[in-house]
Amino acid sequence: MSCSKLASSFDDPSHDRSSISSSVFTDDSSGSAINDEGLFSRKVFVGGLPFNVTENDLRNTFGRFGVLHVDWPRCQDLLKGHVDNRERQPNGYVFLIFHSEEAVDKLVNHCFINNGRYFLEMTTRTSTKSVQVRPWRKSDSFYIIGDLNDPISKINPHHSVFIGGVPRPTRAVDLVNVLEEAYGKVLYASIDMDPELHYPKGAARIVFERFVDFKAAMKGRHIMINHCGIKKRVDIKPYIIDEQCCDACVGTNCDNRSASYFCAFCLMYLCERCWDIIHPLEISATKNPHLPYIRCGDATKQLTYIPHHIHRFSNISDAVYPPLAPMYYNKMVYPSGIGNPCRIQG
Fold it and tell me: 248 in a domain, yes or no?
């Protein structure tokens, strides 16, 4: 997609949230094309297990609802083959993968509810205990606020962040509540899903309503999420959108090719030439290095060097900030609110 076409699609009021979210934020790897035939994923989280539970105990309790596979939490002893999978004591939780969604429906119907949570009585060789059952409701993978056809409050993809390491049972609305308390109003949230099981993969994408809130989240760099009674720290990174125009030159310095990098400090998509112009040697000598982010599969990756500098230097450590010609400096301007050079004037 050319820069001009992509830019116009974001500025056109006829593009509502549903069209933007499907074209920009949805891809096959996220598994966001939800199967509406069932309410729940076939994968179920079970927590609060007795310390001496075995796989046979789990099958005796949950096998009556349908055929299942027991997915123990991975541990070094199990990986090294020191402990038998059927007899290993888990870390208090386990994942059950049922062969059908109907089995999960039966399980949920047999649970009792306490404070909005599902529980089931489980008997082991020595005790009986109520364990927590967390079925994943497919609709919990998305959060969209307001009227989808309201162009005034449409989603701006440039206000997007990527959050990795999200605890698997965390719902989209749970993330929204934490982020809004810490940074500001969220318009859209989606949990990346396994396309086969429709179960969270541990990553999420969030879109803030205002640029100032997006900027605050990028500056904050992390949030704390409650998981199994403890708080887990997860990192916030920019969500890199494919085929974005260079924010500095709008394609004039790169023959309308897509931007090569995203700078999380400047909050800009940049082509190779504009990256060099906006990040001269003087900046790198007085501030923390502005290292680029790129899209790497489903994730966002920060590089430790500038790829297009490598061929100029024998030492990769010198490929971060090379000296630039003085003529470049006269073409930099500073937009209000950013404090870094942003646009190149011809």
Answer: no
* Residue 117 host element (H or E): strand 117-123
Q: What is the pLDDT of residues 280-328, one digit of tens each?
A: 754 444 455 678 888 877 777 888 777 877 665 555 454 554 443 333 3
| DSSP symbols for 264-296 | TTTTEEE-HHHHHHHS-HHHHHHS----EEEEE
Q: What does the alpha-carbon distance between residue 291 and residue 284 come to, in Å, rounded to a whole number?
A: 10
User: What is the number of domains present in the chain?
Assistant: 3
Output the DSSP codes for 28-45.
GGGT-S--TT-SEEEEEE
Do 30 and 298 meet the contact criterion of CB atoms below 8 Å apart? yes
CA nearest 117: which of 108, 127, 126, 105? 108
Q: Which of 238, 273, 305 is the last residue of a domain?
A: 238
149: in domain:
yes
Taking alpha carbons only, the member of 173, 178, 180 closest to residue 213 is 180
